[in-house]
Amino acid sequence: MARLLLSIVACVIAASHATPAAAQKYPERPLRFIVPFPAGVSDTAARTIGQKLGELWGQQVITENRVGAGGTIGTEYAAKSRPDGYTLLMGSSTELAVNPNLYGKLSYSTTRDFAPVALVAYTPLVVLVHPSLPAKSVKELAALAKQRPGEINFASTGNGSTLHFAGEMFMRAAQVRMVHVPHTTIHPLMSVMNGQTELMFGSLPSSIALVKAGKLRALAVTSRKRFAAVPELPTAIEAGYPSMEIVIWNAVMAPAGTPPEILRMLTGEILNILGLPDVKDTFDKLGMELTPGDAGQLGTYLRSELAKFAKVVKETGIRLD
């Protein structure tokens, strides 16, 4: 009996320290990083992290661009992939937080169909105006818009885009009325530079060179704190608009049902990768600031972002179906 009890205890201890079979073998074949957009920030982020994972594990990590429908095609594909840790999504605020609030019949759910892995990085939007507009700050812009209700135009990349949401959020924060001008044939930056529209809420990487060249004037960034790449620019929050926080972010997601031990392994490895100096350099060049966050932090952030955009949709009635 004593020997039997000792045997049982030994088995229990061994089981408590054992690594599940799925994690013991993982990864034993190439992985795929799904990017729902063409070459750009999300693509470079996926390739950078994928290369490091490949070097670490001795397995190829293939970046697969599945584009279309504002990121929904690639995201749906990732959501319906086998939850075995071999398919990951380099997601962004567009398809994970904005689109679920725009489409009533979206084919995936951010919270139901995905498991958070790691928060990666973000870039703020920048309040950009044509140099002829007599506004040198966000407060001056708001005052001008109040003097000219319904006369000032702001450009975006289309209805329901992040840039459109930013304009709507500003109008509500400043209690002003402006006209939204969505662009599908030319980039809104060209529209503002040419004077066709007076302002836009643009991405930092695509606009910083134009600001330095004097072709556009930057008034503020829309992040919670000043952005390291342009520390001289105040935030819209500093100007007195606490609800004006809207950034473009990237995060790694896996299909729901992926084994927890594999998710933990992925989270740990990716967070270690984001701490490497050469990876930081790559993201700095993209105009992105690293914000490493584990699965729990990412899950909390996702819920807050979904709620934020849901509020804007409810107040404005913006829908794409």
Instruction: Say what the CATH topology of the largest domain is.
Output: D-Maltodextrin-Binding Protein, domain 2
How far do the termini sit from each other?
70 Å
Secondary-structure content class: alpha/beta
The number of domains: 2
Given the C-alpha coordinates, what overall shape results?
A: globular
Mean pLDDT: 92
What ranges have pLDDT less than 50 throughout 5 or more consecutive residues? 4-19
CATH architectural type of the largest domain? 3-Layer(aba) Sandwich
Notes on the structure:
The protein is 45% helix and 20% strand. The chain has 321 residues and is of the alpha/beta class. It has two domains: 30-122 and 248-316, Bordetella uptake gene, domain 1 (D-Maltodextrin-Binding Protein, domain 2, 3-Layer(aba) Sandwich), CATH 3.40.190; 124-221, D-Maltodextrin-Binding Protein, domain 2 (3-Layer(aba) Sandwich), CATH 3.40.190. Strands 1, 2, 3, 4, 5, 6, 7, 8, 9 and 10 form a ten-stranded mixed β-sheet that branches. Strand 5, helix 8 and strand 6 (179-182) form a beta-alpha-beta unit. The longest helix is centred in the last third of the chain and has 22 residues, at 295-316. The radius of gyration is 23 Å and the shape is globular.
